[in-house]
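[Q] Does anyone have a clean structure-token version of this?
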Amino acid sequence: MKILDTERLTLRELSLADAGFILKLLNEPSFIQNIGDRNVRTLDDAGNYLLNGPLDSYRRHGFGLFLVETKAAHTPLGICGLIKRAALPAVDIGFAFLPEFWSQGYALEAATAILTYGQEVAKLDRIVAIVSPDNERSIRLLGKLGLSFERMITWPEDGAELKLYATDAVSSARK
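[A] Here you go.
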């Protein structure tokens, strides 16, 4: 199901038919280094990731990670969306794109649309983001989105030290 369109992109709900793309994305070295190893090694693993992650999130929260694809050719570029995690003080924005689509403005375009979606559809007053301290590309993107560094946190699942970025009002992210 299509969630929204931007100038160049369509963001839609992921489905089990996207398992091949998810398998590729989650095994990119940059994904494993910056986000983490999700232990998705087969199409069945990717299907289970989708069922227990994004598809479950749509059902429980009405939002989740969405597939980002080009409008014209429907080429999948990455994922971007909102995630409700028990360990965080608010819903967070997440994004990951295949390296061949970096530095073309796609992540900024998709994430800006997701912030608007968070405010207007999900009715969120505050959105946070977590990022590895050495992930300079994502840190720059969060700055462009208007999120500010708030504090360091220790991730309870693996003890990783992460930077927490936040915006108090989603509308301030578009100023």
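[Q] Thanks! Anything notable?
[A] Strands lie at 2-5, 9-13, 65-70, 76-83, 92-97, 127-131, 148-154, 161-167.
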